[in-house]
Amino acid sequence: MFVKEVDLFKGIASHIIDEIVRLAVEEVYPKGKVIFNRGDFAESLYILEEGRVDLVIQGKKRYAFPIHPGYVFGWSALVEPNRYTAAAECIAESKVIKLDGTRLMHVFEKNPSEGLTIMKRLAGVIGTRLDKFYQQFTSVK
Fold it and tell me: What is the pTM of this model?
């Protein structure tokens, strides 16, 4: 399955990947579908398999960060206070892999070394996204 190809999970022991794959649910959303809104309770981590999703922060101006196949989003399901920090909007029909955050954390707790590795990688994803959003703010004239 696509899960083992995602950077977040590369190199993780196959028995742990098998546990994660058992949690996975594939869903297809039409263009225009909002998967979640900013502020919603974050239950699931998502991996985009096909299509395109934008992470959007709407204020006086609309800021969007495009998510392409292989990217994870909805990381708030693994980080307190478990509220999504942006909306996720399908810009095209999109196939996603949905992982229950609570169940995923149980896998990490049973396998702390690999769980720590994955959470460190997730922190890198968050840092990269913040940097790209900050670039949007500072490049506005």
Answer: 0.92
Whole-number Å distance between alpha carbons of 121 and 73: 13
How does pLDDT run across 56-103, given as a tens digit for each residue?
A: 988 777 888 899 999 999 999 999 999 999 999 999 999 999 999 999
* Domain hosting residue 87, numbered range: 2-138
Could you tell me which residue, 115 or 139, shows the higher pLDDT?
A: 115
Please report, for the domain that includes residue 103, its CATH number.
2.60.120.10
Asked if 74 and 84 touch (Cβ cutoff 8 Å), the reply is: yes
- Residue that is written with structure tokens 């959303």 in the block: 29
Count the neighbouring beta carbons within 10 Å of the beta carbon of residue 100: 15
Structure tokens of 29?
């959303």
Number of domains within the chain: 1
